[in-house]
Write a structure and sequence with these properties.
9 strands, disordered N terminus
Length: 150
């Protein structure tokens, strides 16, 4: 039985490239992401939207990167509150911690080593829930619609 299991594991691991087995690191979250989230508690209720631009450290791994946060909260009363800051972020396994825990996410969709969508939640008192979606890189020569000019 043990020899059969060892053979199956060896055979299966040879079918997949090593990158499939690798855990994401801080470089899996890089570039611009669009945030859309709801806030149930104070200072809401309302919606938070904006961008987070993630810059990993020079050497990928467990070191912290920096995220430039540029968002705004719009409450149900119509009050608009902009917020800009630079926060640290880390990735351990499939978890990302942003701003020392202000937001936490799970890397659920990673393509070619880059997280494309990250469900996030925040402080329990504020009741923040939402998602970060990777903004596609702008292609040179693309028009406003993103279509390539010929």
């Amino acid at each position: 039985m043990q020899r059969h299991l060892a053979f199956v594991l060896a055979l299966t691991s040879s079918w997949f490239p090593k990158a499939v087995w690798a855990q994401p690191d801080v470089c899996a979250v890089a570039g611009e992401y669009v945030l859309s989230a709801s806030v149930a508690g104070a200072p809401g209720p309302g919606q938070v939207s904006g961008t987070l631009v993630f810059t990993p450290p020079e050497a990928c791994g467990s070191a912290a990167g920096t995220v430039a946060v540029d968002v705004q909260l719009v409450t149900t009363a119509g009050v608009v509150t902009p917020y800009r800051a630079d926060w640290p972020y880390t990735v351990v396994g499939t978890s990302v911690v942003i701003g020392g825990g202000a937001l936490r996410g799970t890397l659920t969709d990673v393509a070619r080593g880059v997280a494309t969508s990250i469900p996030v939640s925040g402080d329990a008192d504020a009741g923040i829930t939402g998602s970060l979606l990777k903004r596609p890189a702008h292609e040179p020569g693309a028009g406003a619609s993103g279509a390539l000019r010929r």
